Inverse folding.
């Protein structure tokens, strides 16, 4: 009996050791988003889970604050440091404010990358842009200009005034305005990626600029809110809403005519690519200028002098393809 008991105890101990070893080998990658409850980021999480399944030894922790604040993200980051995660992949609400907390994470041996909306260079090892900023800037102006043959007034409805990606895209859009004669940018306003505030800001633009012909919103929350504001104001056909949106959310606006066309990269691909990069860097890939880091089915990210890389080009959605994509994301 004592021999049997000893054998069982040994077997139980071996099982426990195997289980512990398996857990220790699993990479825990935290996907930190600007705020929970936003469709774009929920789609990115699907991509992250796809990458985790493909890699086999990854656990995704999908997390973020309840609103789009740096303070909320800092709380999340500190909690992840306490948990001892292996990697943090963050879309930042403020590039500078979150950097000290992320520096602390890196000091603890945690891999840190930013994606979608960047972090100050000292707060991350690399940044993954969804696309080329210059290409996005040109695209959002072109989407408006293509349906304004006579030119006219346009306005931009952005997310937060500190959002890294939004500000860069707007800057690039402003640079290419001379390439579109007659297109006049009259205002840039901020809805903070909150549906109700974005709606009110769009209403304000409609009331303030009676000759407004387009609202450009390079944010998925803003474009949806602006299309609703245009619809409610009875301005379909007079004001075209365009920018960056999700097919699933924008299908109704395209159908009604509030939006003729819009663009977006695939957020599923973005979450997938960010996870692959975080995993490979955590496993020893060097994040340095000129490096090429694998992104699975998305190819490889080639880092520039600022340790930044672009994932892919944006894609235009309209009545010809919205049905195909609205059920995907």
């Amino acid at each position: 009996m004592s021999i049997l008991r000893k054998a069982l105890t040994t077997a139980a101990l071996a099982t426990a050791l195997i289980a512990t070893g398996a857990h220790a080998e699993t990479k825990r990658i935290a996907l930190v988003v600007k705020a929970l409850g936003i469709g774009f980021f929920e789609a990115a999480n699907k991509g992250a889970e796809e990458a985790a399944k493909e890699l086999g030894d990854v656990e995704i922790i999908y997390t973020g604050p309840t609103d789009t604040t740096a303070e909320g993200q800092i709380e999340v980051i500190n909690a992840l440091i306490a948990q001892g995660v292996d990697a943090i992949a963050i879309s930042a609400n403020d590039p500078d404010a979150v950097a000290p907390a992320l520096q602390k994470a890196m000091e603890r041996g945690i891999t840190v990358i930013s994606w979608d909306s960047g972090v100050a260079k000292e707060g991350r090892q690399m940044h993954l842009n969804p696309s080329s900023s210059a290409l996005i800037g040109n695209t959002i102006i072109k989407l408006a200009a293509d349906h304004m043959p006579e030119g006219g007034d346009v306005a931009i409805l952005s997310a937060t005034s500190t959002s890294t990606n939004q500000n860069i895209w707007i800057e690039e859009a402003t640079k290419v305005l001379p390439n579109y004669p007659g297109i006049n940018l009259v205002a840039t306003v901020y809805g903070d990626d909150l549906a109700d505030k974005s709606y009110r800001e769009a209403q304000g633009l409609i009331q303030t600029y009676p000759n407004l012909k387009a609202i450009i919103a390079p944010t998925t929350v803003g474009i949806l809110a602006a299309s609703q504001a245009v619809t409610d104001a009875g301005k379909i056909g007079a004001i075209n809403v365009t920018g960056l949106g999700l097919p699933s959310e924008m299908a109704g606006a395209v159908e009604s005519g509030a939006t003729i066309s819009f663009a977006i990269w695939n957020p599923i691909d973005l979450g997938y690519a960010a996870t692959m990069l975080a995993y490979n860097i955590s496993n020893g890939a060097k994040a340095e200028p000129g490096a090429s880091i694998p992104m699975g089915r998305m190819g490889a990210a080639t880092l520039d002098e600022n340790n930044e890389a672009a994932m892919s080009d944006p894609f235009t959605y309209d009545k010809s393809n919205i049905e195909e994509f609205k059920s995907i994301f």
